[in-house]
Each structure stands twice: as structure tokens, then as C-alpha cells.
Amino acid sequence: MKRIHYGISNFEVLRKKNYLYVHKTAYLELLDRYAPYQFFIRPRRFGKSPFISMLETYYDINKKDKFEELFGDLYIGKNPTEEKKILIWKISFAGMDAGHGEEKLRKSFNKKVNF
Predict the structure, then answer these.
(1) Which of 15, 52, 75, 82 is deepest in the core (most CB within 10 A)?
(2) Residues 17, 3: contact at Cβ < 8 Å?
């Protein structure tokens, strides 16, 4: 039986630990077919983070060897898109100090990316 997750947005963890999640890999075909730049807006708690994590896992060249394990039984595993493996650099802006001026924002950003 699949477990319900709360607060877990990592696609790889969701798949490996058999958590329940909304399957959205069919959208990868659409994303590959249209504009190269995407802007995702949805209300809070609508699954943006797990979806972005799924995109990251699908396209990350460093996770290429896990494709069959993570996507093999899903729609995109049975209907893979053209191979587009790239290096992924993920930055989360969560927890950045954006409300106390430009200097604090700059310091917070630099700390986040380790400059």
C-alpha cells in the first residue's frame, strides 16, 4: 500500500519509498514540444515542487543511470522523449531574507550559493 507523504517533494524519494503522488510524467512530452522556457504558477500545495523535482530527475545527466528504476513503469518510461540530458544546477530561494533591503538580500543570496 502506498503511503501518503507530507512535506516530501523529492521525486526520487517518492518513487523509491513507494509514496503516493500525482503522476504527471505525460506532461514531459508537452514541455519538450513547446517553448524552451517555462513559467509554472499554481496555488500553494498544488505539487509544484514534486513536479520540478521530477523534471530535474528526468533531465539530469547525473541521474541517467536511474532512468529505468524511477521512470520505467511510468508513462514517460514507456514513451521517452528525445534524449536531452543536461547538467542541473538547482537553487532554492526558500529561507532567503528578502524583506530587509537589498544588502541583506545580496548577503542571503551569496550565502545560499556559497560565494
Answers:
(1) 15
(2) yes
- C-alpha 52/C-alpha 60 separation (Å) is 12
**Of 59, 61, 47, 60, which is closest to residue 14 (Cα–Cα)?**
47
What is the per-residue pLDDT across 73-94, written as a single tens digit (0 to 9) for each?
999 999 988 777 788 777 777 7
> What span, in angstroms and rounded, lies between the C-alpha atoms of 32 and 27?
9
Q: Which three cell numbers stand for residue 110?
A: 551569496
Helices (H) and strands (E) in the chain, counts: 6, 2
Length of the chain measured in residues: 115
C-alpha cell, 59: 533531465
